[in-house]
Amino acid sequence: MLAATVRVTRDLDAAEEAVQDAYVQALKTWDRDGVPTRPGAWLTTVARRNALNAIRHRQVLQAKLPLLLGPTETAMAEPDAIPDDRLRLIFTCCHPALAQEARIALTLRLVCGVATPDIAQAFLVSEATMAARLTRAKKKIAAARIPYAVPSVEELPERVDTVLTVIHLLFATGHTAYSGQELVRDELTTRALDLARMLRLLLPADREVAGLLALLLAHHARRSTRTDPDGRLLRLAEQDRTAWDREMIAEADRLVVAALEAGSPGRFTLQAAIAALHAQAPAYEETDWPQIRTLYDELLRIWPSPVVALNRAVAVSMVDGPEAALAEVEALERDGRLAGYRYLPATKADLLHRLGRDAEAAEAYQAALALSDNATEQEFLAERARSAAAQGAVGGDEGGR
């Protein structure tokens, strides 16, 4: 709805105001007349009408008070490279005039619909700091008159990597929600897949675009098995692989193979190859961990991220044992860049548990629990902490006898 309204206003603040007014009108109208058959279309139509009314109002004032209001932009070229408002909005937010962090945060807020507190949590800053960053980014778009349009073919390369990143983050935000009761937000993962497919149509020869689409497909294929019928989180080893979407996995595999054969893989293609190996394994124990570790080695070489290093440690634990992996995780702890990242203590807890150090594992699970705002994850971590604490107590008693 916001993306469709921005197409009218070319001003993010004005579009947000028009959308908010539409919701206010819906509260009044729907309560009186009932909810329309297509509420989303109703809201979009009203928001666009509000935006047009605001523009006409400004044009009238402009005619009467030209010196006070300054020039008004009335002629707006219609972008037509791709007929999708959301993708246009992503490209607008990913303009190189904005800092990389601002591009990602703005897109998460405006395109993904992620709440500002959740974005702040992702960036490990306060909500007030993130709100100020978003406001500055929107003002910069307006002040610099950044066009609301898909850039020309010549301008695409400098934006594509950021666009891929934000689509990946959109999917990740839905795949495991930062907060709330549910583990998965299907509307976000589905939207990310749609955008990835549209980007593939726009850039069919781009291997990283194919890699991203393959990555999302390989993860999305097992969405129905990530929780049990009561909504409890299931680990990868516990999921019913016969229920995974084999058509999606086959599509992901074709994309990965083609991307790998076409030349040196980028970070999304390498991640997709790892996800594809997980998806193809007939059982968790039969996963090709040595090859996954090799892929992580290459991924870490071209993308030296502490998150990648943490994920690689899991593969190391399956190849060389949990003790070797624990040393790497503890090195990441000392590094400090993942302070506040709940998967660091959660991974450490699993390794400690496998080493039989359950009392320490319980403490690490509690540390991960304190960093999580998602109810499903909290329940899972709390149960793991209780179980490890109980086993640690038993182990301690036995050790004392």
Secondary structure elements and their pairing?
Layout: H1 2-9, H2 12-33, H3 39-64, H4 66-69, H5 85-93, H6 100-110, H7 116-123, H8 127-143, H9 157-175, E1 179-180, H10 186-202, H11 207-220, H12 246-261, H13 267-280, H14 289-302, H15 306-320, H16 322-335, H17 343-354, H18 358-371, E2 373-374, H19 375-400
Parallel strand pairs: 1-2
Family: Belongs to the sigma-70 factor family. ECF subfamily.
Organism: Phytohabitans rumicis
GO molecular function: DNA binding; sigma factor activity
What helical percentage do the residues reach? 55-70%
Count of DSSP helices? 19
Per the CATH scheme, the topology name of the domain at 83-145 is: Arc Repressor Mutant, subunit A
Q: What structural class results from the helix and strand content?
A: mainly alpha
| Rg, alpha carbons | 24 Å
Q: Give me the strand/helix succession.
A: HHHHHHHHHEHHHHHHHHHEH
Instruction: Please summarize the sheet with the most strands.
Output: 2 strands, parallel
Q: Span between N and C termini?
A: 67 Å
Mean pLDDT: 85
Question: Could you say which overall geometry the principal axes of the C-alpha atoms support?
Answer: globular
Strand content: under 5%
Name of the level-1 CATH class of the domain at 83-145: Mainly Alpha
Number of strands: 2
CATH superfamily of the domain at 83-145: Winged helix-like DNA-binding domain superfamily/Winged helix DNA-binding domain
Task: Give the neighbour order of strands across the main sheet.
Answer: 1-2
CATH architect. name of the domain at 83-145: Orthogonal Bundle
